[in-house]
From TrEMBL:
Its main location: membrane. This is ABC-type antimicrobial peptide transport system permease subunit. InterPro entries: ABC3_permease_C (IPR003838), Macrolide_Exporter_MacB (IPR050250). Residues 265-384, 716-834 form the ABC3 transporter permease C-terminal domain.
Length: 843
């Protein structure tokens, strides 16, 4: 041996079994941390992409105005970091179609704000150039390609500050220079495509700049979006500008912070578990080699060198096993995500985010250093002679044994000798007992939470409840150019295999509620909502309270079904066809904002359209509440909804100006060819872009895949924690057996049989299992109840909680069984040596 430090690799090579066992603990702990970081990255990325598609962009605040002169002042406002402005020229209706092109002149930086994705060509740069959404090219009677000239007769609408419209008919020639895709899931006008032209066109072709403008703002990153929107709205200089916060982005960011906090807590918990595992693994290693260290001390090794050897061994093992853990953790979770999504896409399979590598390295090496250092310090302080004659138990003191024997008198009367001995050993190793119980309890708590979340969400059951037919056709608008007409329903009915079509009219609009029908909780909500802009504040001060909700128009058959959930009042279907009567479902999602009673009069807002189908103003119609029904009578309730109203289809048409149907549910007969029927339905409605056609089979398949992905991800996390905890338990039990080798040898010499030794070890495992079950189940139930209180109405509308009797029993039995098995496994080492060798401490 050329160097004293050559002892480190020799120790590692010599003790292959111990090293492998230690390596498994390190690899699993590190893999767990990396897996969690990848899951966090995946959740954040998916949430961000969905936010962009839902909001149509990543701007913080949008606005519209007719006051052209205030833009420059707004640009220089300290609250504004960057801004983009678009001028509205009007719309062009493609002949013989329902398709419009919304022509706007954008600033060049608009792609930084809106969800524009270039497909072909480029964005316009000169005066007469135009880029269009790609899908709209199919609506033209002739085929256009990049470079073609397009002639658009269109109407330019000038606006005075008072809102008066001055129209000018124009015919413009545009050169098509590019196509792009624009996604905005909340944009209601699906039949309207965006046309992108330059500001130069305005200067060269329009009489003046008095158009309607819209704009998008990025605020100062250090500011609150909500506060900034309120501040801008309250500024006198911007009184003619109407600001709207990007609520989709704001809510997504808020949820993101909650998820980030959850993941931080999980990192801390898992880091603590990993630290315990690595600490215990190295503690066993050091304790097992006390005699070797004593011999090194005897030949002249200093305490500092003993510590250096142990720390060097730990760091060497960390350099070997931590990268393996990082790689395997990434590979495992990426594979699970790939299989659960059924994509087979290998892209990113080996991508490991720095957010996972950094904590894995920090926790891994820090845990190793801490786990190695303290046992090494204890070993280095023992004299050579004491270490050579040691029974390998650094913590076993005579006063501790005496205290344990005196302290368990009550148990002596109730338990047999093996159980009392097991208790005594746990009592004198309290720290190991507590850390092991904590790691096992964490597994149980996580399992309880995952079970509850998956069971409560139950996406498949929710899907079946909310998907009432074989096909569902949904429309995004309420004007005459949108929705399903009677003619459409007639065509669909003629498709072979269609047995029944049920229709529904609906409208999303404010509903004004009487002051006396708003609860104190509802008033607080109204007050908070009024701070969004001055107009809402004015309504609140006038005690005009409204709730954004959906009003549904039910058929006679659907109205009859509501009678089974009646709370108050009466449902007369014939009367509802003739009169302005409404049914209310309130206190949805546990909001408790209203206390509407039969006889109350509410005002339902609805849009008025011009001859081109453009909304020009809102009107209100007074309805009397005829009945109150239970929440479960509604097929689908959005998590943010507190109240919903139901009227008859006839009332929706006659009083709320909704001519067409916004939903149609198609049920096939049992002999129908599903695939053929789906093809005919899609072909029949292919020109109605505003319609979304959902197939039961496709939606169910997607829901199952999503559910499997979520379940596999969450349960994989729990499984890894459980494996790490069980390994920790085996380490602890192995250490307990090892350090008592001489003690148990003496018991065997006095006639203590092997069955009694095993019984003692079994009781130790049982005590670990019982303690971990009690702590884990108790904290798990409390955690699930907190999730229920905080998550009802957010995670799921009808979320419930009940005492998990079966789960408690199963967890208790499985945990105890695992701990007993984990205790028995290392006990076999006791009987591999003779009684004499055990007493002498010969290894």
């Amino acid at each position: 041996m050329r160097s004293f430090w050559g002892i480190i690799p020799r120790y590692i090579i010599k003790n292959k079994k111990r090293i492998v066992f230690m390596g498994i603990g390190i690899v699993l702990s590190v893999a767990l941390i990396v897996s969690l970081s990848i899951i966090q990255e995946s959740v954040s990325k998916t949430s961000y992409e969905r936010m962009v598609d839902d909001a149509g962009g990543i701007y913080d605040i949008s606005f519209f105005t007719r006051d052209y002169g205030k833009f420059e002042e707004l640009k220089t406002d300290s609250a504004v970091e960057k801004m983009s402005i678009a001028a509205n020229l009007g719309e062009y209706r493609i002949p013989n179609s329902k398709v419009n092109i919304d022509i706007k002149a954008y600033d060049e930086n608009i792609t930084e704000f809106l969800n524009f994705n270039l497909i072909e060509g480029r964005y316009p740069q000169k005066g007469n150039e135009i880029a269009l959404e790609q899908w709209v090219l199919d609506a033209f009677p002739q085929k256009y390609e990049i470079g073609d000239t397009m002639k658009f007769p269109h109407t330019v609408e000038y606006r005075t500050l008072e809102g008066e419209r001055l129209q000018e008919e124009m015919e413009s020639n545009f050169v098509l220079v590019g196509t792009f895709k624009y996604t905005n899931n909340q944009f209601p006008n699906k039949n309207t495509a965006k046309g992108y032209i330059t500001k130069e066109f305005l200067k060269d072709n329009l009489k003046n700049q008095n158009l309607e403008y819209e704009g998008y703002i990025f605020i100062n990153p250090t500011s609150s979006v909500t506060d900034t929107a309120m501040q801008l709205a309250a500024t006198n200089n911007y009184s003619k500008i109407f600001f709207n916060e990007n609520y989709v982005k704001t809510s997504t960011m808020q949820y993101g912070k909650v998820f980030e906090l959850i993941f931080k807590v999980l990192f801390i918990i898992i880091g603590a578990v990993a630290s315990i595992i690595i600490f215990n693994v190295f503690n066993i290693s050091i304790t097992e080699r006390i005699k070797e260290f004593g011999m090194l001390r005897a030949i002249g090794a200093s305490p500092l060198r003993i510590k250096g050897i142990v720390l060097g061994e730990g760091i060497t093992l960390g350099m070997i096993f931590i990268p393996i853990g990082i790689f395997l953790g990434s590979l495992a979770v990426r594979t699970v995500m790939m299989l659960s999504s059924a994509t087979g896409n290998l892209n990113g399979l080996f991508h490991i985010p720095m957010a996972g590598i950094t904590p894995a390295l920090v926790v891994g090496f820090l845990s190793i250093i801490i786990g190695v250092y303290f046992p090494a310090v204890k070993a280095s302080r023992i004299s050579p002679m004491e270490a050579i004659s040691s029974n390998n138990n650094l913590n076993l003191k005579g006063r501790k044994i005496k205290s344990s024997l005196e302290g368990n008198g009550t148990l002596r009367k109730r338990f047999k000798f093996p159980a009392n001995m097991a208790y005594m050993n746990i009592n004198r190793n309290k720290k190991k007992f507590i850390t092991t119980v904590v790691s096992l309890s964490i597994t149980i708590i996580m399992l309880s939470c995952v079970n509850y979340l998956i069971g409560s969400a139950d996406p498949i059951a929710n899907f079946r409840k909310n998907f009432p037919s074989d096909f569902v056709l949904l429309s995004s608008g309420t004007s005459k150019d949108y929705g399903l007409t009677e003619k459409d329903i007639s065509k669909l009915s003629e498709i072979k295999g269609v047995e029944k079509i049920s229709t529904e009219r609906r409208i999303s609009s404010p509903v004004y509620v009487p002051t006396e029908s708003v609860t104190s909780k509802g008033l607080k909500f109204q007050e908070a909502n009024s701070n969004r802009n001055p107009y809402l504040k004015e309504l609140f001060n006038k005690k005009q309270y409204f709730f954004e909700t959906r009003t549904l128009g039910y058929s006679s058959e659907e109205l009859e079904k509501l009678k089974s959930g009646l709370i108050e009042g009466n449902i007369d279907v014939n009367e509802m066809k003739e009169k302005k009567l409404a049914i209310v479902a309130q206190d949805l999602n546990y909001r408790d904002y209203t206390n509407i009673k039969v006889g109350d009069r509410i005002k339902i807002s609805y849009p008025i359209y011009d001859e081109k189908g453009n909304p020009v103003r809102d009107s209100k119609e007074v309805f009397e509440v005829g009945a109150v029904v239970k929440e479960e009578m509604l097929a689908s309730v959005d998590a943010s909804t507190s109240i919903m109203f139901i009227v008859s289809e006839d009332a929706m048409k006659n009083y709320l100006n909704i001519d067409n149907y916004q939903q149609a549910n198609i049920i096939l007969n049992k002999d129908a060819n599903y695939e053929q029927a789906e093809k005919e339905i899609r072909d029949t409605m292919k020109l109605s872009r505003d319609l979304t056609i959902k197939s039961f089979k496709e939606e169910l398949k997607a829901t199952k895949e999503s559910n499997v992905k979520l379940s596999m991800t969450l349960y994989s996390l729990v499984f890894i924690v459980a494996i790490v905890s069980v390994i920790n338990l085996i380490n602890i039990m192995y250490m307990n057996v090892m350090i008592r080798n001489k003690e148990i040898g003496m018991m065997r010499a006095l006639g203590f049989g092997s069955d009694e030794v095993k019984a003692m070890i079994k009781h130790e495992g049982m005590f670990y299992g019982v303690a971990a079950s009690i702590v884990g189940i108790t904290l798990g139930m409390l955690s699930t109840y907190v999730i229920y209180i905080k998550g009802r109405g957010v995670i799921k509308a009808d979320m419930a909680w009940s005492f998990p009797t079966l789960e408690i029993a199963v967890v208790f039995v499985i945990t105890t069984f695992i701990t007993v098995i984990a205790a028995i496994l290392p006990s076999r080492k006791l009987f591999t040596s003779s009684v004499v060798d055990s007493i002498r401490g010969i290894e």
